[in-house]
């Protein structure tokens, strides 16, 4: 990590704008270690960059962790609801020569989210990269009543993701990167909404509280079997991802207002149609290909001023 042949004043990574802030932190840690200030002691762990990927024991999330293990200069945490499956995923990466760490996380469980929050705060003093990948989808021909599908899907995809952001965004360090994995289905679902709903979801001034109210209204409208009459599309997954995309726009706006000088970039993205348990074997992309855009956003260089508050697919900003 440390080049012992560097001459004095030859190169200072802390003053070079091309040098990633994550690498600056890991460089500092390496120097401390070399100078015998301690090896990963509680005192120096706050200097180690850390990335967290939710829902990452398989599929796209697992591929994102794999890519970050190769490219991110710090600790990468694979998370899963089930500790056994999470540890199995970590072991699989170890067989590939990659080092990932595990922490249990169920985004439907606020206590679980807060346990991760407290762990990151105590051990690292914050967070550098957060990829909100965890999500669910019912199969097209699932016989579960639509109202149940709506409530369950939004509980995880929207409300769970929102809870993770509420607890972890305050921990994100300057030059941090946040990626909310959404879907192009959010765009098609938006087009399926009434003009009134489209106007609300596209508003540049919509608040998080107003968005939460709309998401709750969708769930309640499905229970009353009036959701289509009220202007909603007949897709719970699509509406949940509308929520994720709009939430990302709101969060980016709030970061601009409250933490402008911290240069944090937050975006939503679509990984594409990926061969996973959720999308099925006929999908056109491999998990590693699906991970490309989320990883691109997670590793935006320190001198980048965008994208921020955007929705991307194939590393390209899409019109919302």
Could you explain the architecture of this structure?
By secondary structure, this protein is an alpha/beta fold. The chain has a domain at 50-72 and 130-318: NAD(P)-binding Rossmann-like Domain (Rossmann fold). It is 45% helix and 13% strand. The chain has helices at 21-34, 59-71, 83-95, 110-124, 146-168, 185-191, 195-202, 208-223, 236-258, 287-290, 292-298, and strands at 50-53, 75-80, 101-104, 127-132, 172-181, 265-270, 311-313, 316-318. An eight-stranded mixed sheet has the order 3-2-1-4-5-6-7-8, with helices on both faces. A hairpin with a 2-residue loop joins strand 7 (311-313) and strand 8. The protein is globular, with a radius of gyration of 20 Å. The model is unreliable at 1-19 and 26-43 (pLDDT under 50). It is an enzyme of class 1 (oxidoreductase).
Helix content: 40-55%
Unreliable runs: 1-19, 26-43
* Biggest sheet, spatial arrangement of strands: 3-2-1-4-5-6-7-8
Radius of gyration: 20 Å
Tell me, rounded to a whole number, the average pLDDT. 88
CATH architecture of the domain at 50-72 and 130-318: 3-Layer(aba) Sandwich
Question: How much strand content do the residues show?
Answer: 5-15%
Question: How is the CATH topology of the domain at 50-72 and 130-318 named?
Answer: Rossmann fold
Counting DSSP E segments of at least 2 residues, the number of strands comes to 8
Terminal CA distance = 42 Å
- Overall geometric form: globular
Biggest sheet statistics: 8 strands, mixed
Element order: H for helix, E for strand:
HEHEHEHEHEHHHHEHHEE
The CATH fourth-level homologous superfamily of the domain at 50-72 and 130-318: NAD(P)-binding Rossmann-like Domain
Structural class: alpha/beta
Tally of helical runs: 11
Return the CATH class of the domain at 50-72 and 130-318.
Alpha Beta
């Amino acid at each position: 990590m440390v080049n012992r042949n560097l001459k004095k004043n030859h190169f200072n990574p802390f003053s070079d704008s091309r040098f990633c802030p994550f690498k600056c932190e890991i460089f500092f840690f390496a120097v401390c270690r070399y100078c015998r200030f301690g090896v990963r002691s509680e005192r120096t762990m706050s200097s180690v960059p850390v990335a967290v990927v939710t829902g990452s024991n398989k599929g796209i999330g697992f591929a994102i962790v794999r890519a970050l293990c190769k490219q991110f200069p710090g600790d990468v945490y694979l998370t899963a609801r089930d500790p056994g499956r999470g540890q199995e995923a970590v072991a699989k990466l170890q067989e590939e020569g990659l080092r990932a760490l595990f922490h249990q996380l169920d985004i439907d469980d606020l206590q679980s989210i807060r346990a991760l929050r407290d762990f990151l705060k105590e051990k690292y003093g914050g967070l550098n990269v957060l990829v909100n990948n965890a999500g669910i989808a019912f199969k097209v021909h699932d016989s579960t009543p639509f109202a149940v599908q709506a409530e369950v899907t939004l509980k995880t995809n929207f409300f769970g993701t929102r809870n993770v952001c509420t607890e972890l965004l305050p921990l994100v360090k300057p030059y941090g990167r946040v990626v909310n994995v959404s879907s192009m289905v959010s765009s098609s679902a938006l087009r399926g909404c009434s003009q009134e709903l489209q106007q609300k979801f596209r508003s540049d001034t919509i608040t998080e509280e107003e968005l939460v109210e709309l998401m709750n209204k969708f769930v309640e409208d499905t229970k009353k079997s009036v959701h289509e009459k009220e202007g909603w599309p007949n897709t719970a997954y699509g509406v949940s991802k509308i929520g994720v995309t709009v939430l990302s726009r709101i969060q980016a706006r709030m970061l601009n207002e409250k933490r402008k000088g911290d240069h944090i970039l937050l975006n939503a993205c679509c990984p594409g149609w990926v061969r996973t348990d959720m999308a099925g074997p006929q999908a056109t992309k491999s998990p590693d290909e699906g991970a490309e855009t989320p990883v691109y956003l997670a590793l935006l260089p320190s001198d980048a001023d965008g994208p921020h508050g955007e929705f991307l697919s194939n590393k390209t900003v899409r019109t919302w």
